[in-house]
Structure to design on (231 residues):
């Protein structure tokens, strides 16, 4: 006696209308040959520059990752902050001093202000070069010099930490950051620089840039030490 199918497995009239018997010649044909798949248009091959940009963050954070996860020691490379400007406000000086004390827990730190327009000239070019001469007296031949410049490369907090770690690995005498005067850096200073970075796409007031850099240097060290300040 033939077993009757359960009502649960019986197709509805509308479904039954869609069920058509396949010819025997097609019964063994793979479905992929019966229904052509619609493929998306091939994406253009990435350019070498885009590939480099994608890989760069991984390379930049490798040393930082090793320092945090493997507890590799980071040399206490001295950090120096040379800044050209007028007399600082009391509030700015207090905040810079506070961050200087915090940074000093991790490495020797120097805050070296340079007076702007030391010759009191109205000629901008003469002013910039005179400021540059003062800055050059603060630099040692084996320092790794980083200029803050609006045309410099943008950096994240992690990349700034990486910069410190790489400078420590390279055994430079110190890592020196230079903030120029209102008209930028002198030609001697620009020629001496090993790197140029910018803290923002915005143009920052001199004292604001000083405070942002001081805070970011402290943050960079907490990243290297795996502390909870940065999250």
């Amino acid at each position: 006696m033939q077993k009757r199918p359960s009502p649960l497995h019986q197709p509805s009239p509308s479904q039954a209308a869609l069920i058509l018997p396949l010819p025997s010649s097609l019964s063994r044909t793979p479905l992929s040959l019966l229904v052509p798949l619609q493929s998306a248009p091939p994406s253009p091959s990435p350019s070498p520059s885009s590939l480099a940009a994608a890989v760069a963050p991984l390379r930049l954070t490798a040393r930082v990752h090793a320092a945090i996860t493997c507890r590799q020691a980071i040399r206490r490379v001295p950090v120096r902050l040379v800044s050209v400007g007028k007399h600082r406000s009391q509030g700015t000086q207090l905040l810079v001093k506070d961050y200087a004390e915090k940074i000093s827990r991790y490495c020797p730190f120097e805050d070296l202000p340079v007076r702007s327009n030391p010759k009191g000239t109205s000629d901008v070019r003469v002013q910039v070069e005179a400021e540059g001469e003062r800055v050059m007296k603060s630099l040692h031949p084996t320092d790794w010099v980083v200029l803050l410049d609006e045309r410099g490369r943008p950096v994240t907090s992690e990349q700034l930490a990486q910069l410190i770690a790489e400078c420590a690995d390279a055994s430079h005498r110190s890592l020196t950051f230079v903030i120029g005067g209102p008209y930028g850096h002198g030609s001697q200073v620009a020629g001496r620089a090993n790197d140029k970075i910018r803290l923002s796409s915005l143009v920052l007031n001199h004292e604001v840039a000083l405070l942002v850099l001081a805070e970011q240097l402290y943050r960079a060290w907490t990243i290297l030490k795996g502390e909870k300040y940065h999250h």
In short: The chain has eight helices and five strands. Residues 146 and 188 are 13 Å apart (CA to CA).
